[in-house]
Amino acid sequence: TDGSTETANVDAFLGSPGSRMTDGQLSELFCTSAGGLLTKATADAILDAVWTLDHSETVAGLMSLLKVQGS
């Protein structure tokens, strides 16, 4: 508490076009964010469906995983 200040500038923060996140980082962020809402098995199934979406003929499998249970 000597009254001094420090500043920093980040031109390309993580997740921006200049500092893209890896697939692993995105997966970890999804699992952390969904932790209180989804089981680990459901989160893993959603991630698998998303990461293989380009090989799927439809999005039906992914959509069924995203359906709110009980509705």
Structural account:
The chain is mainly α and 71 residues long. The protein is 44% helix and 0% strand. Helix 1 (23-34) packs antiparallel against helix 2 (40-51). The mean pLDDT is 92.
Ordered list of secondary-structure elements with their pairings:
Layout: H1 23-34, H2 40-51, H3 60-66
Distance between the termini: 55 Å
The share of residues in helices is: 40-55%
Major β-sheet annotation: none
Multimeric organization: single chain
Q: Show unreliable segments.
A: none
Measured by DSSP, the beta-strand proportion falls in under 5%
Coarse morphology: elongated
What is the H-and-E element order? HHH
Structural class: mainly alpha
Radius of gyration: 18 Å
Count of DSSP H/I helices = 3
Question: In short, what is this structure?
Answer:
This protein has helices spanning 23-34, 40-51, 60-66. The protein has 71 residues and is mostly helical. It is elongated, with a radius of gyration of 18 Å.
